[in-house]
Amino acid sequence: MTKYNNLDRRGLMLVLSSPSGAGKSTISRALMERDDNLTMSVSATTRAPRPGEVDGKDYFFIDKPVFDEMIRDGKMLEHARVFDNYYGTPKEPVEEALAAGRDVMFDVDWQGTQQLAESAAKDLVRVFILPPSMEELERRLYNRAQDSEEVVTKRMAEANSEMSHYPEYDYIIVNTVIEESITRVEAILAAERLKLNRQIGVHDFIADMCAEDDG
């Protein structure tokens, strides 16, 4: 008799994007704490390690020639220049996680999401987090007490541009109550994990059942 266990599954790539202050980081931390099958993508960078940072955990620290070579060889899922340094997502560790049935979460902006869609569209699940209003977004930025008024003004100006890319995402969540927003992302994950194209073990499972029935 065929005994049902969880079917073999290919992992997925979960992207959360939002304007600064909309709640993306809070949601990401909660998901990581609650979901043992979810791992955070580790980026590569050409900048020097900061005190306390660990290679392979916080970032993969590599030099510019190696970074350029990885881009040329198609070994980066996405990459960008930030001031004088380069950041990118190495393809190999992500692919290993997906093949093992683990899900990988990405903290990237809309530009990084576009690149991921070009390089790994079938594995990608894109979620955009919106604030309930611009007034609330500004209030949250000030309440964080992390940024000067000048920086808050700049982030508010950037928010309009960032939110204009919402049609490029699969799901939209208006983050009014943080716990409800976390629950909604968990529901998205649960549904996406059950999609047929990710259930790589279903063919063998059904074949075994049919063979038993024929016997």
As a percent range, the share of helical residues equals 40-55%
Principal-axes geometry comes out as globular
Oligomeric state of shown chains = single chain
The biggest sheet amounts to: 5 strands, parallel
Question: If you average the pLDDT, what whole number results?
Answer: 92
Architecture of one domain in CATH?
3-Layer(aba) Sandwich
CATH topology of one domain, which one? Answer: Rossmann fold
Overview of the molecule:
The protein is an alpha/beta fold. The chain has a domain at 13-41 and 101-214: 3-Layer(aba) Sandwich (Rossmann fold), CATH 3.40.50. The protein has helices at 24-34, 64-72, 91-99, 110-120, 134-144, 149-163, 178-193, 202-214; strands at 13-17, 38-40, 44-45, 60-61, 76-82, 85-90, 103-106, 124-130, 171-174. The strands form two sheets. It has a five-stranded parallel beta sheet with strand order 2-7-1-8-9, sandwiched between helices. A four-stranded mixed beta sheet has the order 4-3-6-5. Helix 1 (24-34) packs across helix 7. The radius of gyration is 20 Å and the shape is globular. The termini are close together.
